[in-house]
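--- STAGE predict ---
source: upstream dedup step, 1 unique chain passed
mode: sequence only
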Amino acid sequence: MLIFITAGIGFAFDMYEIVVQATLVGPMLEDLGPFQKGTPVFNFWRGMFLFIPTVLGGLAALAGGYLTDRIGRQRVLVWSIVLYATAALMSGFAT
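--- STAGE serialize ---
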């Protein structure tokens, strides 16, 4: 039961992230470049900002499952934490 509760909390955070991303992508695009709401270019990039992370997240989950079967749960967990921590550290240097 604890596994289901933990998985549910994780999915809730994923849904929260998607909702916040959908809310912020429009103003972000307007600030980043010469995009006007309602134009085809704006709609294309808004769609890409919402579509690509979802697809990459699904592919990463599939790869993680495959690696878990091949090299073990503990090693995949440790390396995923190291990768996430490194990405978080590097994002601190972004301008």
